[in-house]
From TrEMBL:
<feature type="transmembrane region" description="Helical">
    <location>
        <begin position="256"/>
        <end position="274"/>
    </location>
</feature>
<feature type="transmembrane region" description="Helical">
    <location>
        <begin position="286"/>
        <end position="309"/>
    </location>
</feature>
<feature type="transmembrane region" description="Helical">
    <location>
        <begin position="149"/>
        <end position="175"/>
    </location>
</feature>
<feature type="transmembrane region" description="Helical">
    <location>
        <begin position="105"/>
        <end position="129"/>
    </location>
</feature>
<feature type="transmembrane region" description="Helical">
    <location>
        <begin position="187"/>
        <end position="209"/>
    </location>
</feature>
<feature type="transmembrane region" description="Helical">
    <location>
        <begin position="321"/>
        <end position="338"/>
    </location>
</feature>
<keyword id="KW-0472">Membrane</keyword>
<keyword id="KW-1133">Transmembrane helix</keyword>
<keyword id="KW-0812">Transmembrane</keyword>
<feature type="transmembrane region" description="Helical">
    <location>
        <begin position="67"/>
        <end position="85"/>
    </location>
</feature>
<protein>
    <recommendedName>
        <fullName>Glycosyltransferase RgtA/B/C/D-like domain-containing protein</fullName>
    </recommendedName>
</protein>
Length: 456
């Protein structure tokens, strides 16, 4: 158990500090939107994103007066609470630690994004549902707590609706079996209170903003339907892979061949994981595992379908985060229940933990330095109301040399593109400024263009 304690501490430390060594500090375009909503509180002007994450950011901002630091403190608290709770409650501590070696938690907790708190509440949703099925006492209390976790997920991300839908479909499919157990009424209570909470918030959105999920502020999907569909299929199936993630933005031949190979690997993983899933039938937590698997499938498909009607990211690690955690956590529980040794899973997990750490530092940057440089210039642009990246065509590439084979190749690192880097830093320093996807503002003097900022 000592090795898991050490890995848990390493996870907390690395997750907190790594963004400081990434050029943009883990701050993307969505992060700026969350910061902007947080500054508007208590009178939000948009429901493009739910209010939950901005509220958490604002609470921490009141103490540290810095949204970047607020996001880092939140991630630190999320990781410490999950691992600390798991250890002291003896709730699958080994399994919980290994979750932090996978691609999903590594990605969401080093970024300033809503997936962090979303996964945090999902983890505790697992706990209360697990207790509901596992223990004979406190079933109604656990059902109420589980509904609070699910409502909290909706307040963080609108895709919490898909988690609810996944649970609902799973319960309908298992209805005849669950009806015969003492979990039936608590489950109905869970569904009822979750449904009321979710509906109430969406109704509030409609009455206050005039839209349910900010649909009036979202763009239509981009063109290129065929290749978009193929990449999304690869990304959707990749939700079963605990360690290897896809960045399916490229359509080059080498990239598509790589994605195809990962797709074949993922199909093999489905067969392997399903072997453990079938073993759950003999256990007391059969319903728990079935619900997690069905929820993961429904969540993934619903997000994919959403992409046909609005402009969202392709089915990458971020979009499939919740589905991947459902599958991975279920697998880890079943693995330790059915295997006498953790040798292989431990070695593989540690290998990928090191890989993910090094991969994120493959082209390291100094966020605090970049922030300091931009901060010294922002006073000149205090009257600007909009922020636009007008340097999208300026591409910075890093060249990698392989002496043994006498080959080299160039790679475009998203975090090192000067325009987007300036945009993320400037937006975090002045979160009230509104970043623009397109340069549509007529009064150009109100726009801060990234070309006006110097980073070197």
């Amino acid at each position: 158990m000592l090795k898991y304690k050490i890995l848990a501490v390493l996870s907390v430390v690395i997750y907190f500090f790594q963004p400081f060594f990434i050029a943009n500090g883990g701050i993307g375009a969505d992060s700026l939107s969350y910061f902007e909503i947080a500054t508007d509180l208590p009178y939000p002007e948009t429901n493009l994103f739910p209010i939950g994450y901005p509220v958490l950011l604002r609470l921490l901002y009141e103490f540290c007066n810095d949204y970047f630091l607020a996001s880092r403190i939140l991630s630190l608290l999320f990781t410490m609470i999950i691992l600390g709770f798991s250890y002291y409650k003896r709730f699958y501590f080994r399994e919980s630690v290994l979750l932090f070696t996978g691609k999903t938690l590594f990605f969401v907790f080093i970024q300033a994004m809503s997936e962090g708190p979303f996964i945090f509440f999902l983890y505790f949703l697992f706990y209360f549902l697990h207790e509901l099925f596992q223990n004979d006492k406190g079933k109604y209390a656990n059902a109420l707590y589980a509904s609070l976790m699910l409502i909290s997920m909706l307040l963080i991300r609108y895709s919490g609706v898909y988690i609810f839908l996944g649970f609902l479909i799973a319960i309908v499919l298992l209805f005849s079996k669950i009806k015969k157990t003492n979990c039936f009424k608590p489950i109905l209570l869970f569904v009822f209170f979750s449904g009321v909470g979710i509906t109430s918030y969406l109704l509030f959105n409609y009455l206050y903003f005039g839209s349910v999920v900010g649909e009036n502020e979202r763009a239509l999907p981009e063109s290129g339907l065929s290749i978009y569909t193929i990449r999304n299929i690869f990304g959707l199936v990749n939700l079963v892979n605990p360690f290897i993630g896809l960045k399916p933005a490229s359509v080059s031949l080498p990239s598509m061949i790589f994605q195809l190979l990962i797709f074949i690997l993922d199909v093999g993983l489905i067969v392997y994981l399903f072997k453990y899933y079938k073993k759950a039938k003999a256990g007391r937590l059969y319903f728990f595992h079935v619900i997690l698997w069905i929820t993961a499938l429904v969540y993934g498909i619903c997000l994919w379908v959403s992409g046909w009607f609005q402009q969202i990211e392709e089915m990458n690690v971020r979009m499939m985060a919740a589905a991947n955690i459902c599958i991975f956590f279920s697998f880890l529980i079943l693995y330790f229940e059915n295997e006498s040794s953790d040798k292989w899973i431990w070695r593989i997990a540690c290998l990928f933990f090191v890989f993910h750490t090094l991969y994120n530092l493959k082209d390291p940057g100094d966020y605090l330095k970049n922030r300091s440089i931009i901060k010294s210039q922002m006073f000149k642009f205090k009257d600007k109301k909009y922020l636009y990246n007008d340097e999208k065509n300026l591409v910075t590439k890093t060249t990698y040399h392989f002496p043994l084979i006498r080959k080299s190749f160039e790679y475009k690192h998203t975090n090192k593109q000067k325009g987007s880097l300036k945009e993320s830093v400037a937006g975090s320093l002045n979160p009230k400024i509104k970043w623009l996807l397109n340069d549509t503002v007529k009064i150009k003097s109100k726009v801060l263009y990234t070309s006006q900022l110097k980073i070197d």
